[in-house]
Amino acid sequence: MRVLGLISGTSHDGIDAAVVDFVTSAGFASEGVELSGTVLAATSVPYAPELRARLIAALPPAQTTLAEVAELDTLIGQAFAEVAADMAAQVGGVDAVCSHGQTVYHWVEGAHALGTLQIGQPAWIAERVGAPVVSDIRIRDITVGGHGAPLVSFLDELLLRARAGTSAALNLGGISNMTVVSDKGLYAYDVGPANALVDAMIVEHGLNDLGYDEDARVARTGTVDDALLTAMLADPYYALTPPKSTGKEHFHLAYVQSHLAAQGREIPVADVIRTLTELTVRTVARDVQAAGISFLAVSGGGCRNPLILDGLRAALPDTEVVLADELGAPADDKEAILLALIGWCTMHGVSAIVPGGTGAREPRILGTITPGAGPLVMPEIIAGLTSLSLQAASAS
């Protein structure tokens, strides 16, 4: 089964897509199967500037209207559909699509997630591609006590389970999340902000047209402000125990501005951005050391920030820090590959939740299915996965 995975993450800068050709081993579906996946194609398509600007303007803590939410739901759905149609045509068609859409709100109170909202109407994708679309994948996890995040823990566990010692997978998107795997089991959680706060400052001050600090060019011109960093590290979120989740409902531009106001002095913008970059390094390194992690595979946009990656390696001399490519999941495409895997699991009746990863009480099959052009025909039900291997398609 060829499945197309689509996602726009917490950096809300564009749509990541990957087509994975999944093949099961010969065996009994009732006992679980070995699954191999070949990544046929992957891409990242930026949102149109005007669409991204509207999305940013509607996100918390800003106020918006139901009319704006409805319009963004359609416009983002159409943008996803355009990318999906191009990717499907590139590989000669797909059997199913799994779309995460765009998170616009994640409702957390204390230690509990109570709801989540992703927009990007999947019917537009089904209409353009003609294949069934799995969507709205997070909420089922929340209904059984999970945080709806980080769902990538399901993929991480499959990729890390054979390693000795304590290993982890770290994703540095707008929010950083980590999956820790050892012989004692698995747990996963959102660590804190990765790119979210830096991106917000870059956009607010118009420092470039990209909306992020490419190659840490701005941060390199500043220095860490120790007092600001100390104040930010004291955020109560970091003291919560996993499982836990957070988002831009907490870590946003106004959050930075409130900390700056509390300092009562002028801090150069470059110093603020350098400090926010160091905040990511410190929070991640602190948790990695506390967990005794010996192997750390990093993915997400933040892994392309040399100050973050080099900072982690310097702060973690006893940890092997590599890109997720070494696990067969390219660092830039890992989340889209995850969505393809979740789509495959849903279509085959397989749970894509690891309870220790999200805090869910029990595994559940994720998502809602929108039929394609014809009748919805489900494949054979499979008990579960015993292993997963990933590889890139051979060059032609």
Describe the structure.
It is an enzyme of class 2 (transferase). By secondary structure, this protein is of the alpha/beta class. The protein has two domains: 2-154 and 333-392, Nucleotidyltransferase, domain 5 (2-Layer Sandwich); 162-327, ATPase, nucleotide binding domain (Nucleotidyltransferase, domain 5). Helix content is 34%, strand content 25%. It has helices at 49-58, 66-91, 122-129, 139-143, 153-160, 196-204, 226-233, 253-263, 269-291, 306-315, 334-347, 355-358; strands at 2-8, 14-24, 33-46, 96-109, 112-119, 133-135, 167-172, 175-182, 185-193, 295-299, 320-323, 368-370, 385-392. The strands form two sheets. Strands 1, 2, 3, 4, 5, 6, 12 and 13 form an eight-stranded mixed β-sheet that branches. A five-stranded mixed β-sheet has the order 9-8-7-10-11. A hairpin with a 5-residue loop joins strand 1 (2-8) and strand 2. Helix 2 (66-91) runs parallel beside helix 3, helix 6 (196-204) packs antiparallel against helix 9 and helix 7 (226-233) crosses helix 9 (269-291). The longest helix is centred in the first third of the chain and has 26 residues, at 66-91. The protein is globular, with a radius of gyration of 20 Å. The mean pLDDT is 94.
Task: Give a brief outline of the structure.
It comes from Microbacterium keratanolyticum. Keywords: ATP-binding, Carbohydrate metabolism, Kinase, Nucleotide-binding, Transferase. It is built from twelve helices and 13 strands.
Order of helices and strands: EEEHHEEHEHHEEEHHHHEHEHHEE
The CATH class of the largest domain turns out to be: Alpha Beta
* Full CATH superfamily name of the largest domain: ATPase, nucleotide binding domain
**Main sheet properties:** 8 strands, mixed
Number of domains: 2
**CA-CA gap between termini:** 21 Å
Backbone structural class: alpha/beta
CATH structural fold name of the largest domain: Nucleotidyltransferase, domain 5
- Quote the average pLDDT: 94
Helix content: 25-40%
What global shape is seen?
globular
Strand tally is: 13
CATH architecture of the largest domain: 2-Layer Sandwich
Enumerate how many helices there are, as a single number: 12
Gyration radius, in Å = 20 Å
How large a portion of the residues is in β-strands, by DSSP E? 25-35%
Name the poorly predicted regions: none
